[in-house]
């Protein structure tokens, strides 16, 4: 399994991915799931991948090769982000069919991608590309996308991420979302890659590679844990907690009174 996410806010884009790969209980390794395609001053694309490793590697290799050999379409010929997303979806489905045609073991070759970036000074965009090649755009209400093991890291994104949030704060939120997922699911693991792209910069931006023992990653995790404990302590108290020590009978009587209010 894996976990990747993107955030699209007014000041730019954030991409975050783990590096855990799993080909069975006895075959666990690491592989980068973040791929960048940058033509400084002209266009920037970022691809996050989840699913069958053979498919995702083949897709990335073809994306690079199509540009190098000037085959059309490619990332350089795309006139919009949606056209580039169509291209990624097309080659993904083609490669899945090709690999499935040679398979004799009913292997699942499906792959899912998050794809985003900016062309010229058109607005930055992000897309979630499904194994079938179709895709969705992030929404105004929830300007983030996730693939892989999404459930553990989603609550903080739902509560915090809005379009007007500061870019660096959004990046920290992405790392907390990743940290929560890693703590709850052993199939997601470091190193964690983070890319922060500032709108209209048309460069790769800031890219961080955070190993398990990275001091910044450790500090962020510890501070988040401390914050959660503090938030729990500051939650409103039950009515009986504010009246001192009480017997079970007194507490039951208090609950009955509250029901009838």
From TrEMBL:
InterPro entries from the UniProt entry: Ntn_hydrolases_N, UCP009120_prtse
**GO CC terms for this protein?**
proteasome complex
The record ties this protein, via Gene3D superfamilies, to: Glutamine Phosphoribosylpyrophosphate, subunit 1, domain 1
Q: Where is the signal peptide?
A: none
Q: Which SUPFAM superfamilies match?
A: N-terminal nucleophile aminohydrolases (Ntn hydrolases)
Q: Enumerate the UniProt keywords alphabetically.
A: Hydrolase, Protease, Proteasome
Could you tell me the superkingdom of the organism this chain comes from? Bacteria
Q: Name one GO molecular function term.
A: peptidase activity
Q: Which GO terms describe its biological process?
A: proteolysis
Name of the featured protein: Proteasome-type protease
- The organism encoding this protein is Methylocaldum szegediense
